[in-house]
């Protein structure tokens, strides 16, 4: 398939790669009577063994990739987060850090370096990453750390056993990379008509097809509709992450005491399912461009949806976690000590000073990552405040 006019064309080997994944997805569509729920399409496009976007060996992160995450923007992000980690580990009298979905390993690298400066190192720094390719890249990046830091890093393949983990569980932009269900609703009276969106083959290309949603999905959408507090227009389409609540439960089960820190773009439910957001939040990213056609080039572009932070909070409370805080990334970084971190990081040239000012802008300005990204803290057995959550408190908006 050729590139739409505004997108740079993938090279020939990338297109061959995408064709292989297209073949695999096509076979699965055929094996399912010609129709695949979008959630499964997204799961294959991102995580199919050897071929999925996060699994295959493409660049992904940074300027030459498809998107830039906060740890890639600047080490300042990790250095602020280190203050919150220090608070948790000090309150618990020690403990570990577990990072989920560690990307390029940038956050782990800078966090360990800063915690060493603060004299607040965790006993171990665990990484749980589902992509074998990224695990390898993380290991390579962390190999450059000083020996006494590197020795603390340990890759794990499943969450620590029930009730055994003490410390901090950290996930930056992990929830937005989980497969979602897409739906469309006609809010008829007395009950809405709900359709599930799936992928079919049409004239040799992937296409969308809506089918009546199964009862479990219908009930979930009716719940979202009622709880959103809005009237949706006809043919209102959006998405939800069916793994969100089970994932939070799994983290809660694992946690003996400590903090779960989730950072991602998202909204409280009322904003997520606002009537004007008629196509949801799902987007594709390719070479820093937004791709509207979500079925273009499977395996070559990222697919991502915002996080419904109300569902996260509900799942946490259902599993005996306390909602410690919910705020924007800008407020979190400021309260965690961004100004002090900057004061302790003098730059030695005008160019370096400008670069640092630029990084601060990207991390904190409302039009950049400052407000779109939000931070939620879920805790157990913590009694003192955690830096990051003592500024703006958005919990009442959930
Ligand atoms: C958008 S990237 C973010 C990477 C990194 N945290 C950062 O901020 O640069 C999403 C990451 O989450 C990983 N991931 C997705 N689902 C996961 C899960 N259930 N458990 C652990 N990692 C997961 C992906 O493989 C990838 O490393």
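Sequence proposed for the structure above (398 residues):
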């Amino acid at each position: 398939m050729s590139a739409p006019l505004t997108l740079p064309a993938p090279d020939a080997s990338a297109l061959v790669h995408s064709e292989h994944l297209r073949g695999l997805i096509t076979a699965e569509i055929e094996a399912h009577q010609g129709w695949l729920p979008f959630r499964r399409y997204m799961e294959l496009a991102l995580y199919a063994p050897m071929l999925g976007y996060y699994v295959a060996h493409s660049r992904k992160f940074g300027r030459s990739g498809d998107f830039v995450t906060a740890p890639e923007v600047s080490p300042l992000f990790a250095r602020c987060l280190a203050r919150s980690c220090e608070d948790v580990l000090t309150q618990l009298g020690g403990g570990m850090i577990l990072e989920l979905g560690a990307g390029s390993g940038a956050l782990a690298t800078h966090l360990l370096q800063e915690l060493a400066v603060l004299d607040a190192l965790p006993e171990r720094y665990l990484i749980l990453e589902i992509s074998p390719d990224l695990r390898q890249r993380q290991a390579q990046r962390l190999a450059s750390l000083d020996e006494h830091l590197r020795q603390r890093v340990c890759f794990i393949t499943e969450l620590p056993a029930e009730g055994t983990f003490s410390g901090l569980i950290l996930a930056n932009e992990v929830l937005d990379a989980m497969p979602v269900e897409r739906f469309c609703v006609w809010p008829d009276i007395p009950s809405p008509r709900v359709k599930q969106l799936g992928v079919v083959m049409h004239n040799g290309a992937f296409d969308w097809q809506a089918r009546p949603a199964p009862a479990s999905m219908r009930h979930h959408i009716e719940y979202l509709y009622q709880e959103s507090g809005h009237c949706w227009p006809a043919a209102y389409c959006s998405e939800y992450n069916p793994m969100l609540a089970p994932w939070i439960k799994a983290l809660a089960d694992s946690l003996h005491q400590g903090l779960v820190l989730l950072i991602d773009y998202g909204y409280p439910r009322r904003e997520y399912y606002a009537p004007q957001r008629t196509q949801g939040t799902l987007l594709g990213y390719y070479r820093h461009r937004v791709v509207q056609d979500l079925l273009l080039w499977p395996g070559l572009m990222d697919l991502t949806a915002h996080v419904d932070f109300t569902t996260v909070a509900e799942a946490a409370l259902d599993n005996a976690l306390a909602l410690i805080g919910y705020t924007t990334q800008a407020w979190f970084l400021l309260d965690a000590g961004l100004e002090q971190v900057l004061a302790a990081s003098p730059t030695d040239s005008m160019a370096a000073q400008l670069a640092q000012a630029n990084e601060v802008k990207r991390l904190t300005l409302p039009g950049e990552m400052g407000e779109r990204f939000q931070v939620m803290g879920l805790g157990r057995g913590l009694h003192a405040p955690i830096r990051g959550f003592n500024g703006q408190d958005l919990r009442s908006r959930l």
